[in-house]
Amino acid sequence: MKKRTRSTTLALTPIAFGALLLAANAASAQTADGTQPKVATVVISASADASAQGLPSAYAGGQVARGGRIGLLGNVDIMDTPFNATNYTAALIQDQQARSVADVVQNDPSVRVARGFGNYQELYVIRGFAVNSDDMAWNGLYGLLPRQFVASELLERVEVFRGANSFINGAAPGGGGIGGLVNLVPKRAPNTDLNRVTLGVESGGQGYAAIDVARRFDDNRAGIRINAVRRDGDTAVDRESRELNVFSVGLDYRGDSYRLSADVGFQEHKLDNPRPSVTPGAGLAIPRAPEADSNFAQPWTRSNERDTFGSLRGEVDLAPGVVGWAAFGARNGSEFNALASPTTTDNAGGATMYRFDNYRYDQIRTGEIGVRGTLHTGSVRHTISATASAFELKSRNAYGTSDFAGWNTNLYRPVDVAAPAPTFFTGGSMDAPLITNKAILGSYAIADTMAFLDERVLLTVGARHQRIKNTGYDYNTGAQSSGYDRSAVTPVAGIVYKPMKNLSVYANYIEALQQGPALPGFGIDPEQLRRNPVFDPYVSRQKEIGVKYDSGKLGMSAALFSTDQPLAGIRKATPDALTGEFGIFGEQRNQGLELSVFGMPMKGLRVLGGLTLLDARQCRTVNGDNQGKDAIGVPDTQLNLGGEWDVAQVPGLSLNARAVTTSKQYADEANRQQLPSWTRLDIGANYLTRFMDRDVTLRARIDNVTDRSYWASAGGYPGYGYLVLGAPRTVSVSATVDF
Q: CA–CA separation, 143 vs 585, rounded Å?
């Protein structure tokens, strides 16, 4: 197949041309006296969770916030919580031109981005454990956001909580909640009118347009914020194209003794000819990474996702120091995928592929109620929080494959074939899929945070009673094939000690209760797949100690943690067998050290980054095989270093750079297939100016400056070590105008 040559010059689509023309005009504008232009700052006082306090303020430098949501405990300052979290702001999201949540968490040394099994779902590996995008929270509620991709334009904050967290928000419906939690905070109308238009273009000719409009009414009590986004065109990967349509409305109202907020959103995300993951064949070496912009996808493959979602939240003052809240959310989402992923057959890039199609329709309803209040017993101040939550998922699914023998191709010289019919092995009807899974989660929790010794000691204790009811149904008949109804109590204990005002020492014990893992679509015995069994929930346990420092301009933290998790995987009759039995057969222990730094240590310089050292071991395995070996897809070292500098000689100009380093990792349980370590460098520039009495922000960014070819991740689904090729050099330019 002839490879299309791709120029590094951006294709000038109409949107791109408009953006570049505006950039050229704006760049020539200077203030009359040559001083730095004053650019309006968007100040948000209304909180997405309808709390009276509003959003926690930004830390020095504006890239992260001073605090974030800790489930039923509400918004908590970073120095007052016995957990480790980083809360990324809208300023960071915009300045780095982040497209999705994955782009934002690239700044976090405890997080690496992988991919769902056999599809294009963004997946976040936190402390070495997979967190599916299904398990992200939207303003504290699970399951409301699109499963595979969440556009950054929806977001005011991206809050990354590190560690087990079933007590915090309840058990995650997608089986995560072990290594961490990602909570996304929606946008609210600022205190001043907002009229913002952004135009841009990326490598390959991907055009971009976004509108962000906000107003406040009734003496600023009521607010509305509207966002609309369109991305369309080819990407930096050869022959790959993307289309994204997003529309959202955020509403809020501040009454005398109550607050209300609501969000409604729509997202449609389409990928044509998306580059697939690669599975290294058993006993073979990891293949050399192909050129970063190459594409070994079949031209008929695609992935389409369409979601409508919404939520309503309210808070009322019940008495002095006592508030109650309630929230409800819903999502209807559909997905269609036509997939073909290569499995290598030799060490020269040879591979086989077969077709796998699936259709999925999800209907989710979720909600919570709660109360939080403060009281004193002698010299001890108690903050007591109680909540009850409910979640229901109904999922309709169908799938079809071509002949498993497939066809031959090569990673370095791909072979295109006509699309084979996905009728060799099927489950359900693609035109009318039946319900294959129903999950009902319910919980109630209570916690008490006690403040001693003039609030130098904060002790939090609590427990959540969680019930999980899960039922699996046969794809073809709709008859119930399996199910369970289980409950458990997950406790928490955490303590913060402040020997000095700017220093906190903390420790915690917390658990994660997970639903049993869902069956993967590939690699298991066909009869087990047809029966579609569900697995009982299980508990992971975490212990952690740490220290935090806050100078007011520079924040730092260090944490030591250890987490034990039951391990799911595939038990094969022989090592080279194509299929096997899926189940929970072992245990994995992840322990490590996290170091983080953020803030503005000196005028004009912002820093963000850190180091994570991990030791992830298979402590117990099937038949004792591979015991003591490293877990799949968990590197020993993750290093992120980011900085942003204001150029004093050019008022309004700032330059930024970020280095991301990931050490070697393994793609198989026996640790014979090793991915090389990799380092990626990203750079960018932002220029703030005034043009025709309007605020203008010009942004340019180059990700993977050296165009390095590397395998970015291995695995993400238990027992599988599929490889994801890192993105090529990608240039993004945009112009934002505030009217």
A: 28
Mean pLDDT of 110-121: 91
User: What is the pLDDT, as a whole number, of residue 17?
Assistant: 33
Closest CA to 117 of 294, 276, 283: 276
Q: Alpha-carbon distance 326 to 704, whole Å?
A: 44
- Length in residues, the chain: 739
Alpha helix (H) residue ranges in 453-546: 526-531
C-beta of residue 535 within 8 angstroms of C-beta of residue 517: yes
| Tokens read off for 22 | 């505006």
Q: d(Cα 54, Cα 490) in Å, to the nearest integer?
A: 30
Which among 732, 577, 597, 650 is positioned nearest to 208, based on CA atoms?
A: 732
If you search the block for the tokens 């992200």, which residue do you land on? 136
Q: Residue 73 contacts by C-beta under 8 Å, 6 or more apart in sequence? A: 81, 168, 383, 385, 447, 449, 460
In this structure, how many other beta carbons lie within 10 angstroms of the beta carbon of residue 485?
Answer: 10
Write out the H or E segment, with its range, that includes residue 445: strand 434-452
Kindly give the residue spans of alpha helices, DSSP state H, lying in 452-550. 526-531
Residue 630 tokens read as: 């490293």
The span from the CA of 536 to the CA of 696, in Å, is 55
CB 232 within 8 A of CB 242: yes
- Residue 460 burial class via C-beta count within 10 angstroms: exposed 0-12, middle 13-18, buried 19 and up: buried
| Contact status, residue 588 vs residue 565, Cβ threshold 8 Å | yes
The encoded tokens of residue 666 equal 């393994």
Question: Could you report the per-residue pLDDT of 518-542, keeping only the tens digit for each?
Answer: 676 667 788 787 776 767 778 899 9
Question: How far is residue 736's CA from residue 739's CA, in Å, rounded to a whole number?
Answer: 10
Closest CA to 413 of 515, 464, 342: 342
Q: How confident is the model at residue 733 (pLDDT cuts 50, 70, 90)?
A: very high
Half-sphere exposure at residue 427, Cβ-oriented, CA atoms within 13 angstroms = 24
Cα distance between residue 442 and residue 170, in whole Å: 8
Q: Which amino acid is at 22?
A: L
Kindly report the number of other CB atoms within 10 A of residue 288's CB atom.
13
